[in-house]
Amino acid sequence: MYMLTPQEALEELKSSPGGLSREEAKRRLIKYGYNRLEEERESLLIIFLRQFNNPLVFILLTAVGITFYMGDRLDAGIILGIVLINGILGFVQEVKARASIESLKKMTETHAKVLRDGREIEIPVSQVVPGDIVLLQEGDVVPADIRLIDSKGLLIDESILTGESVPVTKNAEDIYGEEVPIYKQKNILFKGTIVVRGKGKGVVYATGKNTEIGKIAEKTKEKSPDSPLNRALKSFSLKWMILLFLILSFILILGIVQERDLYKLFLLIISELVSAVPEGLPLVVTFVLVIGAMALAKRKTLVKYLPSVETLGSATYIVSDKTGTITEGRLKVEEFKAVEELPLLLCAALCNDADENKGDPLEVALLKWLSDREFDWKKVRKSYPRIWEFPFDANLRLMATVNQVEGSKYLFIKGAFESLKKMSTQDSSYLEEWHDQMAEKGLRVLAFGYAKVDNIPETIMQVKIKIVGLVGFIDPPKEGVKEAVETAKKAGIKVIMVTGDNLKTAVAIAKKVSIYGENDVAVEGDKISDYSDEELYNLLKITSVVSRATPEDKYRIVKVLQRNKEIVAVTGDGVNDVPALKIADLGIAMGSGTEAAKDVSKMIITDNNLAVIVDAVKQGRTIAYNIRKVIYYLLSCSFGEIMLLTSAFLMKLPLPLYPIQILWINLVTEGVQDKTFAFSKEEKNLMEEKPKKPEKTFFDRKQLFDIIFTAFFMGGINFLLFMYLLKITSYEKAVTITFTSLIANQWFNGFQSIRIEPFLKNLKKSFTVNPYMYLGVSIGVILQLLAIYVFPQWLHTVPMSLEDWKYVLLTSAVLFGIIEIKKWIEYLIRK
């Protein structure tokens, strides 16, 4: 459409300068549909069922089936209840988050002015159709993609679409050849952009999904990748299932060979299955994430998708936009050079259409600058009234006014230095030097001049002026961003700034906030297509700035990084950011951004600042470490139970635990302790560590060794205790003491789990890093005493004497001491 003249565009769209008739508009609304983007929404049933899509849950459901088949309906009901509670918690949190996002949406639809039957009327934007003639003025949001047919001083903010922070001029006359990028199509207005200044009239050629914004929205149909946490947990669950299958198959085969009683054999297998499955893990992870989400909310971060809480901690790249995230999203006078300062200030005040905070951002910035210099521009405007104006001309790149100044007429002019230089009578060599110095810093430079005139000029370019100064503008960096970037670098996270701005401006900003370093590379978006995926990945390793980037460029950058196993967080607020936000491992939208960006993101930052994101990364890493500790605690306890049961089976001893006792153990140990891991404080500076792959964060060799080490001693100590007790007391008493000993062992293992360093190294810290752990154990102690002394028949126990408790304390002290010695050895090795 940008290649057609206004008349050709009207003919192509079968329209006229007077617009469509009402009847034709109705026909086209039926043909083309409403001018809006339809949302795809997940049903509540799908959200609920997704909570159970986890291998651990599948194992538990298998245990439910076997237990129910064996006739133990109580145990089956308890396990099934745990699964349902976990699913309901996740479902409620996700639905609440979705409701929170929907509450951010606008409650009323905007309207547009169009010509119908030659008359100006106002209609809902959704009813605008191709062929409509739309009238636009300052402050309007462009309702559809439009070919201009008339314009006057039109300035458009296209940052929502292109990422360009500075408004661009538009006019109806320019015609272009083929393959012109959207940021160069000066005769086209795009849906969602904003009229900053001037007036325009144009014919609609695309609505709804056919607009540039609509085409971008189509890319959001691509499924978002699974979170690193979910991938890691699924990987772990699969390995754990295979290990369980091998262990239980071995026991079953061995039992059949030894001609064991089949009922007892199946009872053992059920016991081991219940022991081995950390049924509380999905629930605990959810709980840790919920607490993390609440902590992030205090840090101005709204979580839409719970697993994304941890994704932040695993991020290796942050691909950030510039405007509104790294910078303030408003222009500011950064520097000026004056030949004559008073005339420069007068020109900035009088050749200016802005008023306080309304108008062209450049002109608003000028007024703010004048106010900061204590120059009363309001008084000057009253004293020196405007008697003529030459509105901003996009081709000449200047504007001018004539004002009455103490009985004389003075022309004040501002615009591009190249334009004013042609009108100047002075030597401009030093002015050119000033201009180039400011441009090299990434500043947008305006020149100012004046001339005394006798009459209103007939042709503006014939006026001879004196240039009185240059003013450089910049979109300033936000407070705290530089420190945040430096923190991210220390944490091994690479920050790439992707923006629609020009290369010089982008690099200048990136240098100010430490994104662009001495050996870094900056590349323009149109060069990206020259590289293969492998070449682009190698380039991105050393690239910190991508300028003049299109949505497709940002999308490809994210995909290339992901294919190379990088975990990518993407920030954005405009429609141009939507494709990248959708496919990123973690899409982070700005609170002041578009609804489209918020809809596809997994997090929303209410304070549009990169510093908030880096702070959230720190919280994410703390959450990841807490999940690691939970996994260690649950698996070491579960595997300890397996060691005990398997050892008794191999030695042809009776079962030391009943299946219902194993579930009780999980309740009074894991059930009251594992939830408290969510409240563990950061015990070391996690932002000084490099990011790890999620699989390594949760389950690496060190984690596996720690689990087996603890499980071996926990199972071994209690097996020896059980063997000894069978010789000196009844089977019921032996089971009760072993049952209680194992519970106490797991409590002490929990105390050791809350810190990486030795427990006794800093007792105060050990008791304060997570005081909730001790509260949880207190509840567990009360429950266990009730099980032994009040309801012994429910759990196959008998009351214990005071003498019996010495065995419980002895095994717990031995296990605690063994783990403490191991941690001291590791600590000394690290040192």
Written overview of the protein:
The protein has 831 residues and is an alpha/beta fold. It folds into 4 domains: 125 residues, Calcium-transporting ATPase, cytoplasmic transduction domain A; 290 residues, Calcium-transporting ATPase, transmembrane domain, CATH 1.20.1110.10; 157 residues, Rossmann fold (3-Layer(aba) Sandwich), CATH 3.40.50.1000; 143 residues, Calcium-transporting ATPase, cytoplasmic domain N (3-Layer(aba) Sandwich), CATH 3.40.1110.10. Helix content is 50%, strand content 16%. It contains 30 helices and 21 strands. A hairpin with a 2-residue loop joins strand 1 and strand 2. The longest helix has 41 residues. Pfam families: Cation_ATPase_C, Cation_ATPase_N, E1-E2_ATPase, Hydrolase.
Strand-helix topology:
Elements: H1 6-12, H2 22-32, H3 44-50, H4 55-69, H5 73-102, E1 111-116, E2 119-124, E3 133-137, E4 145-157, H6 159-162, E5 168-170, E6 188-189, E7 194-206, H7 212-218, H8 228-257, H9 262-276, H10 281-298, E8 301-303, H11 308-314, E9 317-320, E10 332-338, H12 341-350, H13 361-372, H14 377-383, E11 386-393, E12 398-405, E13 408-415, H15 417-423, H16 429-440, E14 444-453, E15 466-474, H17 481-490, E16 494-498, H18 503-512, E17 521-524, H19 533-540, E18 543-547, H20 551-563, E19 568-572, H21 578-583, E20 586-590, H22 595-600, E21 603-605, H23 610-650, H24 659-673, H25 694-698, H26 701-728, H27 731-753, H28 763-768, H29 772-789, H30 805-830
Parallel strand pairs: 9-16, 9-19, 16-18, 17-18, 19-20, 20-21
Antiparallel strand pairs: 1-2, 1-3, 3-7, 4-5, 4-6, 4-7, 8-21, 10-15, 11-12, 12-13, 13-14, 14-15
Helix pairs in contact: 3-5, 4-5, 5-10, 8-9, 9-23, 9-24, 10-23, 11-23, 17-23, 23-26, 23-27, 24-27, 24-29, 26-27, 26-30, 27-29, 27-30
